[in-house]
Design goal:
The structure holds 2 protein chains of 2 kinds.
Chain A lengths: L1 H21 L11 H14 L1 H33 L1 H15 L7 H8 L3 H25 L3 H9 L4 H38 L5 H10 L3 H29 L4 H4 L5
Helix pairs in contact in A: 2-10, 3-4, 3-6, 3-8, 3-9, 5-6, 6-8, 7-8, 8-9, 8-10, 9-10
Chain B lengths: L1 E12 L2 E13 L4 E5 L6 H9 L6 E6 L7 E4 L11 H5 L9 H14 L15 H13 L5 E5 L7 H18 L2 E6 L2 H7 L2 E6 L2 E7 L11 H16 L7
Parallel strand pairs in B: 3-7, 3-8, 5-6, 6-7
Antiparallel strand pairs in B: 1-2, 1-4, 8-9
Helix pairs in contact in B: 3-4, 6-7
The chains are: A mainly alpha, B alpha/beta.
The structure holds adenosine-5'-diphosphate and magnesium ion.
Adenosine-5'-diphosphate binds next to strand 1, strand 2 and helix 1 of chain B.
């Protein structure tokens, strides 16, 4: 039933779009019909252009996301393990967290140019905090009462870590990872819109300059679909490896 | 034999101090069944946590007689199940890596059957009612075949029928395997139905002892049971509840 509803909603939106352009409610220049956009997408795909831009964008997201994980996870663990470290740097991090990554773009462009480093940099900045906060929050909120259960079973510290603390922390970590993935995708497109020579964001601005609304729409659709796919992939992986987390996952829509 | 001498426990609360336990001298003979009864806040949980080794006393000494380690299992006031494990996983939680896999599976299945949850072996904790969850927690303790079994108001969340069944089951397990049992309750009737002796607690101290030499299973409507109940209640009610400091 929900699956049917989903399809119906998408189909209705498509139909409305088709009607709007067919009956001339809006000028075909501002909003080309679905047919035109599909045709354009076909051409872009056939020429290999779509794939090239998509791969460029995907590579940046993947790289930035992995780097962010590599920074955020150890730092969060250090914060969990060391109270002094946390007390010292918490205020600074709180301050940095308030700054939207896109506001740092100008600075990043001056420091890193407009190449790959800058794009990856902006992605790292935008998904660092969700991942960092997820990991830290996950370990912080482990229920001491569950640890007692391990203690009376005679567990060693590593056993308690592995069999109680880690599984307890996992839901929050997963939420952080999922939010981070969404943020990184959005930040990337933003960065590509501002300054780049390849990628899906670039495809869109470039088309805008040429007044090709059909290409703009095709690019937007691809971005949406890819974001959705990435999210589903992550959810699928989590559902397979940790089925009890399904409930917590729904909190992570951001 | 498990012995406590001069045990006290104080907690810092804000700028002051709360005395949760004071001057506890007790011995628990191996294989005995002791109930610990008193109103809430009198220190029962704290005493149990000290027996379990989860908490250090502020003063006093614990002696665990006999040779080697006392295998201890605890049933807490709340079920404390691991939400990521199903019922069977939770029951076997303390066995994994300690008992051969096949033996663990067999013992788990038998214990799950004992607490009447065979149909729910694959269920997740979120799908269980409070009483069912508590039965899983009880199974998790029993499956370890402990030498010392500590229970903190384990049946408080159960309905009256299930509670009666579980009380009888606990007694028959005790009669078969003879672990040392310390059973905390705020229900005087339960204390009399289960224990060979009941210890009365008030304000962090042991204020009375009642030896109960009735045969098991005991009937709540038995006049003898009633006599013991009345004796305990009259003593607990005679001493006024401690004024909070
Ligand atoms: N961790 C703690 N910190 C501060 N006070 C505590 C703590 N644990 C217990 N207490 C206090 O010790 C007293 C006894 O508590 P407890 O042993 O839980 O009683 P009971 O289990 O009989 O209800 C209470 O006054 C309680 O507030
Ligand atoms: Mg208590």
């Amino acid at each position: 039933m929900p699956r049917f509803t989903t399809i119906a909603v998408f189909a209705a939106t498509l139909a409305l779009w088709w009607l709007a352009s067919r009956l001339g409610w809006v000028s075909p220049f501002l909003l080309p019909g679905p047919g035109t956009v599909a045709e354009t997408m076909g051409e872009l795909a056939a020429s290999g252009e779509l794939l090239r831009h998509t791969l460029v964008s995907l590579k940046r997201v993947l790289l930035g996301y992995l780097f962010a994980i590599a920074f955020a996870v150890p730092l969060a663990l250090a914060f969990v393990l060391s109270r002094p470290l946390r007390a010292t740097f918490e205020p600074l991090l709180e301050f940095l967290r308030q700054i939207p990554p896109l506001a740092l773009m100008p600075l990043l462009m001056l420091w890193l140019g407009i190449g790959e480093t800058q794009k990856v940099g902006i992605i790292i900045l935008s998904c660092f905090f969700p991942i960092f906060l997820g990991v830290r929050g996950g370990f912080d909120s482990v229920d001491r009462k569950l640890i007692d259960v391990g203690t009376v079973c005679g567990f060693s510290r590593p056993e308690i870590m592995l069999r109680i603390v880690l599984p307890s922390a996992l839901p929050a970590i997963v939420v952080g990872l999922r939010i981070g993935l969404g943020y990184s995708w959005r930040a990337l497109v933003g960065a590509e819109l501002i300054a780049s020579s390849a990628g899906l964001g670039y495809l869109i601005v470039d088309a805008e300059n040429l007044a090709r609304t059909d290409i703009v729409l095709a690019g937007i659709l691809v971005i949406g679909v890819l974001g959705l796919l990435a999210d589903h992939l992550l959810r699928f992986a989590i559902r397979r490896s940790a089925p009890w987390l399904s409930g917590d996952l729904e909190m992570a829509r951001a | 034999m498990l012995e406590l001498s001069g045990i006290g426990r104080r907690y810092r609360v804000g700028s002051g101090e709360v005395t949760a336990l004071a001057d506890i001298d007790l011995s628990f003979p191996t294989g005995s069944f002791t109930t610990l009864v008193g109103r809430s806040g009198c220190g029962k949980t704290t005493l149990l946590r000290i027996l379990a080794g989860l908490e250090r006393p502020s003063e006093g000494e614990i002696r665990r007689g006999g040779d080697g380690k006392l295998r201890t299992a605890v049933v807490f006031q709340e079920a404390r199940l691991m939400p990521w494990l199903d019922v069977a996983g939770n029951v076997g939680f303390g066995l994994r890596g300690r008992v051969p896999r096949a033996e663990a599976a067999e013992r788990c299945a038998a214990t799950i059957e004992l607490v009447g949850l065979s149909a729910f072996a694959g269920a997740m904790p979120a799908q269980l009612s409070g009483g069912m969850a508590q039965r899983v927690a009880i199974a998790r303790a029993l499956v370890q075949e402990p030498d010392l079994l500590l229970l903190d108001e384990p049946f408080a969340a159960l309905d009256a029928f299930t509670r009666r069944t579980m009380q009888n089951e606990l007694v028959s397990i005790w009669q078969r395997r003879r672990p040392t049992i310390v059973f905390v309750t705020h229900d005087v009737e339960e204390a009399v139905l289960l224990g060979e002796r009941a210890l009365e607690m008030q304000g962090g101290r042991i204020v009375g002892r009642e030896a109960i030499a009735l045969p098991y299973p005991r009937d709540p409507t038995d006049p003898e049971v009633n006599l013991h109940r009345r004796a305990i209640l009259s003593r607990l009610m005679a001493t006024p509840a401690p004024v909070p400091a």
